[in-house]
Design goal:
alpha/beta; TIM Barrel; eight-stranded parallel sheet; two-stranded antiparallel sheet; about 15% strand
């Protein structure tokens, strides 16, 4: 397993981690036993990084991880990251809270669910416009001084915001959707992270299941809280995307690798500070993605991938209107 540094002064973790949103029912029904099996396989494969959040299943993801750790007698083989700041108002509308009181209270609950005294990495899940990012960074520094977190990062922020945060304190990681179907980070964020040695943590590196040999069926999409309203997975756009995917699937077959593995290999080729955190509900799918950690893409391989799926090939936006509430748009 390749290892990559989590931030300019951070520890080395596996280049492939586990995105644990799939431990809840966000992408369809799953069970604790399935999640435990994935964690067991991850350890066997040398994966040392797991990413979760307080809102994944309203704490379900963190609770599952905490129970798995407890079953090991408290032995923790993972660098664990979690996130906070997404909340809701009295009417149930999604809002964001970067206040010191909210962040620490949510972190304390996460630590309880995980059964930990400290997390390795704590992300601001979404920016709260009421607080300047410098102020939020100072809050996170305070949590480090209290021994509750070892490092901090931000999710879905613009390069300009990263530069401002970096001026206060080194930022260990920035987390953004990044894959062959979502290339926006190439317009500044990937470059900025490389310059500052900030880890670029790519979530949904297999395009939420699109960049695989078995893209989500209509039934799977309908069962997913997230996918059923996503423009890229509905109507004509999805049919067009499936047609384009045949090109990548054919290319993967020619290379002797799964399509998901090829998608992972492409993400990892984008820089030695790039880390992929795919989610999955099955050990079989995890094994497919692990193939990507063993594949070094040549210049001709990358050219063939670019020919099959050039920049801007995907139909439909990566988020619907409601899902765009929060991420910083910079291009």
């Amino acid at each position: 397993m390749q290892n990559r540094q989590m931030g300019p002064d951070g520890p080395f973790v596996s280049a492939l981690g586990i995105g644990a949103m799939s431990f809840s029912d966000m992408y369809g029904p799953t069970t604790k036993e399935q999640s435990f099996a994935i964690l067991d396989r991850a350890v066997d494969a040398g994966i040392t990084h797991i990413d979760t959040a307080n809102i994944y299943g309203r704490g379900v993801s963190e609770t599952v991880i905490g129970e798995w750790l407890a079953n090991r007698g408290g032995e923790n083989p993972f660098f664990i990251a979690t996130k906070a700041s997404i909340t809701s108002d009295a009417d149930g509308n999604r809002t964001f809270d970067n206040s010191p009181e909210h962040l620490e209270a949510e972190l304390d609950q996460s630590l309880t669910r995980l059964g930990l005294d400290c997390v390795d990495l704590f992300y601001i899940h979404r920016r709260d416009p009421r607080f300047e990012i410098e102020e939020v960074s100072e809050t996170l520094i305070g949590l480090m001084k209290k021994g509750k977190i070892k490092s901090f990062g931000y999710s879905e922020i613009a390069p300009s915001s990263l530069r401002r945060a970096q001026a206060v304190h080194p930022v260990a990681a920035v987390q953004n959707e990044y894959s062959l179907s979502t290339r926006a980070p190439d317009l500044g964020l990937v470059q900025n992270c490389a310059e500052t040695r900030t880890a670029m943590v790519a979530f949904s590196p297999v395009g939420r299941g699109l960049l695989t040999d078995t893209p989500p069926s209509a039934e799977r999409i309908a069962a997913s809280v997230f996918l059923r309203d996503n423009p890229r997975f509905t109507g004509r756009a999805y049919q067009d995307n499936l047609k384009r995917m045949e090109l990548l699937q054919s290319l993967a077959r020619d290379m002797g690798i799964s399509t998901a593995g090829l998608a992972i290999a492409w993400v990892l080729s984008r820089g030695d500070n790039v880390i992929a955190i795919p989610g999955t509900r099955s050990v079989e799918h995890l094994n497919e993605m692990l193939q990507g950690t063993e594949k070094t893409l040549s210049t001709s391989d990358l050219e063939a991938i670019e020919t099959a799926l050039p920049v801007g090939w995907a139909s439909g936006d990566r988020y619907g209107p409601a899902q765009w509430n929060g991420p910083e748009q910079y291009c």
